[in-house]
C-alpha cells in the first residue's frame, strides 16, 4: 500500500479552517484534504478487474453520507473511473475513525493506541477491526476532510468537492478501489491544529479492494480525465495543499485553479504533448503539466499527469479543455467541457 501524508493549509474564511497539520475544507471554493492511495495490485486467476459501469444496489446511506456517496460515485462513473459499492464494515471503520478524531480533538489517518475510541492505528487496521476481511491481493485507502463549523449540513457533498479539487487528493479519490464506507459527523473541541475552541465537522471516506473484489483497471487503450465532459459544480481554486503542488508559491495568497487529472492504465506510460483550458475570456494560463518526472513530491506515477491552471478559475463558468499526447506511444486527444460551481 502507498501511504503519503498530505496536508492542506489555506487562508481562514467563514466556515473554513486554517490548518497547521492535515486537511481542511470550506464552502468558499477552497479544495483540500488528506488521503491514502490505492495501488493496482496483481490479478488473481479467474477474476475480473474491469471498471464497474453499472450502478451498485441502492445504498443504505441517508443524509450527509448519502450526499458524499452520490457525489463521489457521480464523479467517478461520469469520467470512467468506475462506481464504488457500499460496504457496511468499511462504513463502521470510517464512523469509528471520525468518532476517534472528535473524542481526541485530533485529525489525521493514524490513531494512537490507548486513546479514547481507538480502533486501529491505520485505516486498514480499523477496517479489520470492523469485520472487513482482507484476502489474496488487497489494498485500502482513505480520504478525509474537516470543516470549521459544527453545522455539517451540506458537508457530505462539499467535502467530496474539496477533495476532488486538490491535486494529490484527487488522485486518491479516483483510485482503483471497488468498495467504500463513509461517515460525516460534527463534534469538538477540535484541537490546536484546527480551531481550538470551535466544534468541527469531519468526513472520512475509506476505500478498499480485496480477494474477489479486485481493483478497477481501465482498458489499455483508455485515457481517463477528471473533470470530464458532463461534470458540473466543481470547485474553482486551490488555496493550499501540503505537500504543495507548487512549493515556491504561497497558495493562500496566490491560489491556482483546480487540477485536471489524466490517467492511463497502470504500467503504461503517459506523455502529455499539449494542453489548453479556455474560458469565456480566452485561454487560461497554465503551469507546466505535472508528471512523475517533475512532481516535486514524487506522488504521481508514470501513467498519471495533472494539468495545472496558473490562476483561479471563475465560479459558475464553463471551460473547454483540450489535451493531446501519447499512451505508451499511441497518440490520443481529449476534448471536453466542464463547469465550476457557484
Summarize the structure.
The chain has about 350 residues and is of the alpha+beta class.
Unreliable segments (pLDDT under 50, ≥5 consecutive)? 1-35, 39-46, 190-197
Helix content: 10-25%
Question: What's the multimeric state?
Answer: single chain
Question: What is the N-to-C succession of helices and strands?
Answer: EHEHHEHHEEEEEEEEEEE
CA-CA gap between termini: 37 Å
Strand content: 25-35%
Shape: globular
The major pleated sheet works out as: 5 strands, mixed
Number of strands: 14
Question: In the CATH classification, which architecture of the largest domain applies?
Answer: 3-Layer(aba) Sandwich
Structurally, the number of domains stands at: 2
Q: Any idea what the CATH superfamily of the largest domain is called? A: CAP
Radius of gyration computed on alpha carbons: 19 Å
Topology, element by element:
Layout (H helix, E strand, L loop, with lengths): L33 E2 L27 H16 L6 E2 L1 H16 L19 H7 L8 E10 L7 H10 L2 H7 L5 E9 L12 E11 L13 E3 L5 E3 L25 E4 L6 E10 L2 E2 L2 E6 L12 E6 L8 E10 L2 E11 L2
Parallel strand pairs: 2-4, 7-14
Antiparallel strand pairs: 1-3, 3-5, 4-5, 6-8, 8-12, 9-10, 9-13, 11-12, 13-14
Question: Can you give keywords for this protein?
Answer:
5-stranded mixed β-sheet; 14 strands; disordered N terminus; Immunoglobulin-like; alpha+beta; 2 domains; Pathogenesis-related Protein p14a; 342 residues; 5 helices
Amino acid at each position: 500500500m502507498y501511504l503519503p501524508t498530505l496536508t492542506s493549509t489555506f487562508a481562514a474564511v467563514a466556515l473554513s479552517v486554517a490548518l497547521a497539520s492535515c486537511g481542511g475544507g470550506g464552502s468558499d471554493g477552497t479544495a483540500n484534504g488528506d488521503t491514502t492511495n490505492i495501488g493496482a495490485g496483481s490479478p488473481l486467476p479467474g477474476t475480473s478487474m474491469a471498471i464497474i459501469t453499472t450502478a451498485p444496489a441502492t445504498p443504505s446511506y441517508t443524509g450527509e453520507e448519502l450526499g458524499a456517496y452520490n457525489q463521489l460515485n457521480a464523479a467517478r462513473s461520469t469520467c470512467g473511473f468506475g462506481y464504488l459499492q457500499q460496504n457496511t464494515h468499511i462504513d463502521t471503520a470510517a464512523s469509528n475513525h471520525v468518532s476517534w478524531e472528535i473524542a481526541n480533538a485530533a485529525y489525521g489517518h493514524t490513531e494512537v493506541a490507548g486513546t479514547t475510541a481507538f480502533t486501529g492505528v491505520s485505516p486498514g487496521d480499523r477496517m479489520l477491526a470492523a469485520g472487513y476481511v482482507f484476502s489474496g491481493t488487497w489494498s485500502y485507502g482513505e480520504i478525509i476532510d474537516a470543516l470549521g463549523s459544527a453545522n455539517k449540513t451540506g458537508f457530505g457533498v462539499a467535502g467530496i468537492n474539496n477533495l476532488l479539487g486538490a491535486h494529490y487528493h484527487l488522485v486518491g479519490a479516483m483510485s482503483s478501489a471497488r468498495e467504500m464506507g463513509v461517515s460525516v459527523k460534527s463534534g469538538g473541541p477540535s484541537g490546536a491544529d484546527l480551531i481550538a475552541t470551535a466544534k468541527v465537522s469531519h468526513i472520512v471516506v475509506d476505500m478498499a479492494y480485496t480477494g474477489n473484489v479486485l481493483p478497477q483497471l481501465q482498458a489499455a487503450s483508455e485515457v481517463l480525465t477528471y473533470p470530464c465532459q458532463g461534470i458540473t459544480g466543481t470547485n474553482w481554486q486551490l488555496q493550499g495543499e501540503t505537500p504543495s503542488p507548487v512549493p515556491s508559491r504561497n497558495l493562500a495568497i496566490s491560489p491556482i485553479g483546480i487540477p485536471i487529472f489524466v490517467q492511463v492504465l497502470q504500467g503504461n506510460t503517459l506523455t502529455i504533448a499539449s494542453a489548453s483550458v479556455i474560458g469565456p475570456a480566452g485561454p487560461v494560463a497554465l503551469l507546466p503539466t505535472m508528471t512523475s518526472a517533475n512532481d516535486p513530491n514524487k506522488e504521481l506515477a508514470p501513467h498519471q499527469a495533472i494539468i495545472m491552471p496558473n490562476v483561479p478559475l471563475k465560479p459558475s463558468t464553463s471551460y473547454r479543455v483540450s489535451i493531446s499526447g501519447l499512451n505508451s506511444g499511441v497518440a490520443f486527444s481529449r476534448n471536453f467541457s466542464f463547469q465550476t460551481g457557484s
